[in-house]
Design brief:
Helix content: 25-40%
Shape: globular
Bound molecules: alpha-D-galactopyranose
Number of helices: 11
C-alpha cells in the first residue's frame, strides 16, 4: 500500500532482468538498464557535526523516526553516519575501530539494527591519511588512503551499504587514482556498496566519477553547504549548470539538505527542497528527526516533489532561464510530462510569466498543471503567470490533456 515509487521500481527489477534474459540480452546489459534513482536518506553531519550527541543512541532513534514519521514509506532509505565515528587509532592489525564512547555496541550491531528496520546503513571515510575533523594530539581520525582493501573488507563485514568518501589530507595524490582504488576495493568485497564521492568539485568529478573505473553513484559538485539562504543559493547556482553530466545511477550532489535546521525560513526551505528535487539531487535529510518541527517535516514528506526527484527517466532539470534573479528549470519526466520550477532569488516579490514554448511545450495545446506545493490541479495552455514572493519557488507538473 504505502510503497514508494523507488520501492516499486526496485521490486520490478528482477522481472525486468528475467524478461531481458528471455529476450536474449546479456545480463550485464539488463542490470544496467534498471533505473537507479538519486539516493534518499539521512546523514547526521549538518545537525550534529562532531558534538557528543552524535552516538549510537541518536542514530537508532533516527532509524525509529524514519518509520514512525512516515519517511521510510516516502522513499527515504539510507541512515548514514559522518565523520567522528572512528577511534583515533586503528587496532594492532590495522583495522578501523569505532569510537568506544560513541558506538559502544560497534558498527556491525548498529548496521544490524538499521537493517532490521528495513533501512540501509551508510558510513564515512576520507581518501586521505586522515579525515576532515581537526587534528587532535597531531593525529586525525584514520583515512582510507593506502588502506583501501582492508577498509572496504571491514565495511562489508559490518554490513555497510553506502560509503561517503571525503577528500581531506589527500597528500596531493591524484584524485582519480584515490577514488578508483576505493571503488575497486568496494567492488572486490562482493557486497553492493553505494559509492558517494566527496571531493567538493575540485577535480571536476562530473567528468570522470560516474564512469568506470570509479562508477560512483554520486559526486559532490561544491564545497560544504551551511544553514543559510546565501549558502544554499550559491550551491544551487554551481550545480544547476551541470545537468548534462547526470545520468541514471550517477548524480551530481550539491550536498545534504538543511531543511529543518532553523537558519532559513520555510519559504527558503521549500525552495531548497524544490531546487534539489528538480536537479535530481540526492535527498539526504540533515536535521535531527527526533526534534523536527511539523512544518519542516511536511516539506520533506511532499510526495509530489519527491516524485520529481525520483522520476525514473533519470534526467537532471535544465535551466531554461536565468535572468534578473528569476530561474526557470525544466525536468522531463518518464510519463511524458514536464516538471517546472520557478525560483525568485531576489529579496522582493516578482511577477513571473513563462510562456509554454519557453518550457518546451507545444503552442496552442491543452495541459493539466499540477501545483506541487498546493497539490491542486488547473488546466491551461501550458503558460504560467505567477507572483513569486522573495526567495520563493513554485513548482508544477505539466501534462498534455
Ligand atoms: C567535509 C565534507 C562534509 C563533512 C565533513 C566531515 O567537509 O565535505 O560533508 O563530511 O568533511 O568532517
Amino acid at each position: 500500500m504505502n510503497r514508494s515509487l523507488g520501492d516499486l521500481l526496485r521490486a520490478a527489477t528482477p522481472l525486468a532482468f528475467i524478461l531481458a534474459i528471455v529476450g536474449g540480452m546479456a545480463p550485464a546489459l539488463a542490470t544496467q538498464a534498471a533505473p537507479a534513482l538519486p539516493q534518499m536518506g539521512f546523514n547526521n553531519w549538518n545537525s550534529t557535526h562532531c558534538r557528543p550527541e552524535f552516538n549510537e543512541a541518536m542514530i537508532r532513534g533516527i532509524a525509529d523516526k524514519f518509520i514512525s514519521l512516515g519517511l521510510r514509506d516516502a522513499g527515504y532509505r539510507y541512515v548514514n553516519i559522518d565523520d567522528c565515528w572512528a577511534n583515533w587509532q586503528r587496532d594492532k592489525d590495522g583495522r578501523l575501530v569505532p569510537n568506544p564512547k560513541r558506538f559502544p555496541s560497534g558498527i556491525k550491531a548498529l548496521a544490524g539494527y538499521i537493517h532490521s528496520r528495513g533501512l540501509k546503513f551508510g558510513l564515512y571515510s576520507s581518501a586521505g591519511t586522515s579525515t576532515c575533523e581537526p587534528l587532535k594530539e597531531n593525529r586525525g581520525f584514520p583515512g582510507g588512503l593506502g588502506h583501501e582493501k582492508q577498509d572496504a573488507a571491514t565495511f562489508a563485514s559490518w554490513g555497510v551499504d553506502y560509503l561517503k568518501y571525503d577528500n581531506c589530507n589527500n597528500q596531493h595524490v591524484d584524485a582519480r587514482q584515490r577514488y578508483t582504488a576505493m571503488a575497486e576495493a568496494l567492488r572486490a568485497t562482493g557486497r553492493p556498496i553505494f559509492f558517494s564521492v566527496c571531493e567538493w568539485g575540485e577535480n571536476k568529478p562530473w567528468l570522470w566519477a560516474g564512469k568506470p573505473p570509479v562508477s560512483a553513484g554520486s559526486w559532490r559538485t561544491t564545497g560544504d553547504i551551511s544553514d543559510s539562504y546565501a549558502s544554499m543559493l550559491k550551491i544551487f547556482k554551481q550545480n544547476v549548470v551541470l545537468d548534462r553530466y547526470a545520468t541514471p545511477g550517477h548524480w551530481n550532489d550539491p550536498d545534504m539538505l538543511e531543511v529543518g535546521n532553523g537558519g532559513m525560513t520555510d519559504v527558503e526551505y521549500r525552495s531548497h527542497f524544490s531546487l534539489w528535487s528538480i536537479m535530481a539531487a540526492p535527498l539526504l535529510i540533515g536535521t535531527d528527526l527526533r526534534t523536527i518541527k511539523p512544518d519542516a517535516l511536511k516539506i520533506l514528506l511532499n510526495r509530489d516533489v519527491i516524485a520529481v526527484d525520483q522520476d525514473p527517466k533519470g534526467v537532471q532539470g535544465h535551466q531554461v532561464r536565468d535572468a534578473d534573479g528569476i530561474h526557470v528549470i525544466v525536468k522531463p519526466l518518464a510519463d511524458g510530462s514536464e516538471a517546472v520550477a520557478m525560483f525568485n532569488e531576489t529579496d522582493a516579490a516578482r511577477s513571473v510569466n513563462v510562456d509554454a514554448t519557453e518550457i518546451g511545450l507545444r503552442h496552442g495545446a491543452h495541459y493539466r498543471l499540477r501545483d506541487l506545493w498546493a497539490h491542486t490541479d488547473a488546466t491551461g495552455d501550458g503558460s504560467i503567470k505567477i507572483e513569486l514572493p522573495a526567495h520563493a519557488t513554485a513548482m508544477y507538473r505539466i501534462s498534455r490533456l
